[in-house]
Structures
1.
Amino acid sequence: MSQNPHGNHAIRRIVLPSGRTIEVIRFNDVDAERRELHICPACGSELVQPMAWNETADGRWDLVLECPNCGRSESGRFSRTQVERLEDHLDEGLTEMIADLQRLTQANMAADVDRFVAALDCGLILPEDF
Ligand SMILES: [Zn+2]
């Protein structure tokens, strides 16, 4: 087993009976608690999303997480604190998307008004159009 330079996880290589080698990444418990769930451990994307979730009897959460960037999927049991941080991050993303949508809507409306005024100026809109 080898430690990475940051010491927050260990990589273990296992040779399967088929001869294929796989890497198992194991986070130690303390660092696993600090791990930000919205960040993909494989590609570093910050867009990891929960695909399924279920609260356990001890107040933790079983989550299925998926990275839309590299397609990595994982399932695991995470602390309430970690899940709350993920939820906060998702809320921030939703707020940003709504703000973008409002800006886009305003820009479209401004463009519509400009076209309407130009059509009026050219005499292309008449009372009988209404
Ligand atoms: Zn990824």
Note: The pocket of zinc ion is lined by residues 40, 42-43, 45, 67, 69-70, 72 (CB under 6 Å).
2.
Amino acid sequence: MKNLRNSILLGVLAFLFSCGENGKQHSSKIYIVTTTGMIADAVKNIADTLLEVEALMGPGVDPHLYKAKQSDTKKLLEADVVFYNGVHLEGKMAESLESLAKTKAVYAVADGIPESKLISTSQFSGTHDPHIWFDVNLWMDVAKYISHQLQKKYPEHQEHFKKNTEEYLKKLEEFNVWVTEEIKKVPDSVRILVTAHDAFGYFGRAYGMKVEGLQGISTVSEPGLKDITALVEHISQLKVKSIFMESSVSARFINAVVEGCKEKGHDLKLGGTLYSDAMGAAGTEDGTYLGMIRHNVNTIVGGLK
Ligand SMILES: [Zn+2]
């Protein structure tokens, strides 16, 4: 029923926008719309200036809670191809995206990763952790998948996409080695990453870090006093040096943990802010996928070493 309602809504909007006097606001290039900035960054690396790429979710935006605005619906309807993360990252947009997929090229990039490589979570029964961008190796699968879909849809640009993809994959491979080496600089006993929500499961698995999140995999439910007390106990026992903030999640629970540890006589420091579910400002180094991960790695290593 909801799907039907979404389809009708999209249909009506499509009709309204098609009646607009100027039509598309953007250039005459092939227009690709993505949900997160990380996906847009991958598309840009594969397509460079050949396509116009736009992400709906900017810096600091929490994709778990994000609801499509009217302007987003317009962009989605105008898009030639839509790429979204999938595996329930875009919790409030999933239905609209799935119904849009019936009428245009809409792809969940997580489909490019073999299911066996995804982390199962009990938080959504029978589903997986959506934070796939934090394992550079998995992100290479995503880049290959995006490239494959673009080559299929635009065979006239196949060589262009292929060449760029090869170069980008090489860069990602080298980068993956760098991340692995950097994290090794943190002594094994304190290689524990405590953050506001469980965004770093893939990161922990890929680079050998224990990960504790205060809010679980999604930010939809808030932590209770019991969760905070348990975490305070755990951190104080292990003498974890630093806890980290996240760019797209409220800091108040983190502050509660710092206060709790202080009461127990453990001086827990704020290790800095990590980019979790969104990149940094556009036009800056942190506003790219590589820059975002590099910032996180430097912050983590600096805070825990
Ligand atoms: Zn998240």
Note: Residues 182-304 form a domain with the Rossmann fold fold (CATH 3.40.50.1980).
